[in-house]
Design a protein that fits this description.
The complex is a heterodimer of chains A (about 425) and B (about 290). Chain A has about 425 residues and is α/β, with parallel strands linked by helices. Helix content of chain A is about 45%, strand content about 15%. In chain A, strand 1, helix 2 and strand 2 form a beta-alpha-beta unit. Chain B has a single domain, classed as MetI-like fold, CATH 1.10.3720. Chain B is about 70% helix and about 0% strand. Chain B has 13 helices and no strands. Chain B is globular. Classes of the chains: A alpha/beta (about 425), B mainly alpha (about 290). Chains A and B meet through helix 3, helix 9, helix 14 and helix 15 of A and loops of B.
Chain lengths: ~425, ~290
């Protein structure tokens, strides 16, 4: 009897193990971009909602472990160690596509997006762009009014406004180099206004080596940028962090904050005791160009075992209006879907939308997408090196020459690998 | 006791295995990749001979990183060893004040370098930092610790030394305790002054400790990464970048793992040469009694 019972138990054990093996759950790993406005809990709520809708799928959330490691750096580490996620927030696909790390979407996969073609690389789409952000200048309306300053419509008017503020003992701009990236936003705006507005696909021409970074338009743009950094940002620009920039502006220590529309999330907190306005950086003649970032979205790893599940997850993210609305609300973003997604917008965000309605949109210089995107590594060179050097007074022409040399090295690396 | 070869081999095998997996193999891989154009993420790469090294020795960023690394190394080695020896001699007494001071100097050593760097970056913040707030109370204008790259590098070096001095002090105190008291007493009886005793007896007999500490501090300075990463990130414009920081930047931001491996290999060779030279110099000065 004991023998028979033992045999039955063994048989049950074997059957159970076999069934468990056959019924292996579908698990996808989602690498997210953790930020103050989009904490881990937010991303987990997306995963939870999807898992509730699809009980046979398990979504595991991972994110860059520290603010000292950028998301692209973290993703490169994952890729180098064979831990590349199934789905990920992607900021610069141009760094990953040459290595074959990303899965291209098929025609029609992203039909729910307003422009599924934005940022295509060699005719293929690797990113489902999930937000549009604009960069411009937030300003203290009360300070402007008290000093009789109108919103500047030309570069000269901006310089005059800055001089007026300086004369009144007010620091015109809040800007810092310590975190490495915020100053790049101002440089992006000048490059957009003076260079990209003349040729929206200048980036593709640079990639084809038909033009150089050291050209009169970009030189003019960077000289303007240097003027602002060296004259109107206070005496300790090198020691100021992004958080301190916000603090300087929102406590009334500086009159203008040149940064992206994500700062609307701070404006929405309404902790400042003045009215915040926004304008686009003016050019020589007018203020009719706005730089936009459309470089971030969701991508799928080329080696995922579950490409269809990943596509379904991305579809779910965009088409669950409540979920996508929450995402947009976090930073008062501009949606990228065909269908309008309503969320609780602050008045300044609505004002921005009205202001840019008839403006020329150019991509943020450092984050151009698709065939216009910088070669791998050059985005970091632009933000971490060139714009910082120019901000502390380096010769603009020499810096642009060095940028061209860096382009040669990056190009050679790509050609070597081909 | 009779030695059993198999027994001995089994005892040392785990140590050799760990050393091989975590030291020899990565070093070998670094050596190999330094001759390739691997981007760190592709499955394919090509052998490109000495191209990475030729580019490296023509790279202004590398020379700047080398300069920064050397400044940090010189300052920290001086503080660790000169101040370390002096503090060890001064504190090598049995009193509560000395015990307390030794503990106070040692406490930062147990803190994570990242934590220390964050604490100090808040302390030295130009706008609202502790030091400048205190200066403001006395009506003194704020001091900009980040005004020039050199000032920032010196400041970082002092922070590194503050963080690590305790360990070096412990080694020096331990070395001091190995010096026989009879020698000191004999010298005192012979009429040698305190300064003479220090230079003629204490310092020569501390040479084994100085050898260890100078090599450890030199290698630590040349490998410096974490404090600089947290405090400046190597900026502005790479002006405060160390060699290790440059290497990580090239690997993970510029997708040039082969080039980055070449940088690390050069650093490795530098550390080996400097340590060997240092060892031969200090060993010669060690005295036996």
């Amino acid at each position: 009897m004991k023998k028979i019972l033992s045999l039955i138990l063994c048989a049950l054990l074997i059957c159970g193990t076999a069934c468990a093996a056959f019924a292996e759950e579908t698990k996808i790993v989602f690498c997210v971009n953790i930020q103050p406005q989009l904490p881990l809990e937010f991303w987990q709520s997306i995963a939870d909602r999807y898992m509730a809708a699809k009980p046979d799928v398990k979504v595991e959330i991972i994110g860059n472990p520290s603010s000292n490691v950028t998301l692209p750096q973290y993703e490169k580490t994952l890729l180098a160690t064979d831990q590349f996620p199934d789905i990920m927030v992607m900021q610069n696909p141009a760094d990953f596509v040459p290595s074959g790390a990303l899965l291209a979407f098929d025609e029609g996969d992203l039909d729910y997006l307003a422009d599924p073609n934005v940022g295509k690389i060699d005719g293929k789409q690797y990113v489902a762009n999930y937000k549009k952000q604009i960069i411009g200048v937030f300003y203290n309306k009360d300070m402007f009014a008290a000093n009789g300053i109108e919103v500047p419509q030309t570069w000269q008017a901006l310089v005059d406004a800055s001089e007026t503020l300086l004369a009144a003992g007010i620091q015109p701009f809040s800007l810092g180099l310590k975190d490495g990236w915020p100053q790049g936003q101002l440089a992006n705006m000048f490059a957009g206004t003076d260079l990209l507005a003349k040729d929206l696909h200048w980036g593709a021409k640079r990639n084809a080596d038909e033009v150089k970074f050291n050209n009169p338009d970009l030189q003019k743009a960077m000289e303007k940028y240097q003027t602002i950094c060296t004259k109107y940002c206070g005496s300790n620009i090198t020691g100021i962090t992004y958080t301190q920039m916000l603090e300087q502006f929102f406590t009334g220590k500086a009159a203008m904050l040149p940064i992206g529309s994500w700062v609307n999330a701070e404006v929405a907190k309404a902790e400042q005791d003045f009215e915040v306005g926004w304008f686009t950086l003016p050019g020589d003649e007018d203020a009719n160009v706005v730089s936009v970032f459309v470089n971030e979205g969701l991508s799928i790893g080329a080696d995922t075992k579950y490409p269809e599940v990943c596509k379904d997850f991305i579809h779910f993210f965009f088409t669950d209006k409540e979920l996508y609305g929450e995402f947009l609300k976090s930073e008062q973003l501009f949606s990228t879907t065909k269908e309008t997604v309503e969320y609780d917008m602050i008045p300044l965000r609505k004002d921005m939308e009205e202001q840019i309605a008839n403006m020329t949109e150019v991509e943020g210089f450092e984050s151009m997408t698709g065939d216009d995107a910088f070669l791998p590594g050059l985005k970091d060179y632009f933000t971490n090196k060139m714009t910082q050097n120019i901000a502390i007074g380096a010769d603009v022409a020499s810096e642009l020459d060095a940028f061209d040399e860096e382009w040669e090295i990056a190009k050679e690396a790509i050609d070597d690998a081909a | 006791m009779k030695h059993n070869k198999l027994h001995d081999t089994l005892l040392v095998a785990p140590g050799y295995l760990i050393y091989t997996v975590f030291m020899i193999i990565p070093l070998g891989m670094c050596f190999f990749y330094s001759f390739t154009n691997w981007d760190g993420i592709s499955k394919n790469y090509k052998m490109i001979g000495l191209k990475n090294f030729r580019r490296l020795f023509a790279d202004a960023d590398f020379y700047n990183a080398l300069k920064v690394t050397l400044i940090i190394t010189v300052i920290t080695v001086l503080i660790y060893n000169v101040l370390g020896v002096l503090l060890a001699v001064l504190l090598n007494r049995k009193s509560r004040a000395c015990a307390f001071t030794k503990s106070a100097v040692f406490v930062p050593t147990v803190l994570s370098s990242v934590v220390v760097a964050f604490i100090w970056s808040y302390i030295m913040q130009t706008d609202g930092g502790v030091i400048n707030t205190v200066l403001g109370v006395f009506g003194i204008a704020p001091y900009d610790f980040y005004a020039t790259p050199l000032r920032t590098i010196v400041m970082i070096s002092v922070i590194i030394a503050w963080n690590g001095l305790g360990l070096f002090l412990v080694i020096y105190v331990a070395t001091l305790n190995t010096i026989p008291t009879e020698l000191m007493e004999a010298a005192e009886v012979d009429g040698a002054s305190g300064v003479q005793r220090f230079f003629k007896i204490t310092l020569p007999l501390m040479m084994p400790g100085i050898t260890i500490n100078s090599i450890l501090s030199m290698a630590g300075g040349l490998k410096q990464y974490d404090h600089v990463k947290v405090i400046t990130g190597g900026g502005p414009g790479g002006a405060t970048q160390t060699i290790t920081l440059l290497s990580v930047e090239k690997a993970f931001e510029y997708n040039r793992r082969g080039y980055s491996s070449a940088i690390i290999l050069v650093l490795f060779v530098m550390i080996v040469i400097v340590s060997a030279v240092q060892l031969s110099i200090t060993k010669r000065r060690e005295v036996k009694y």
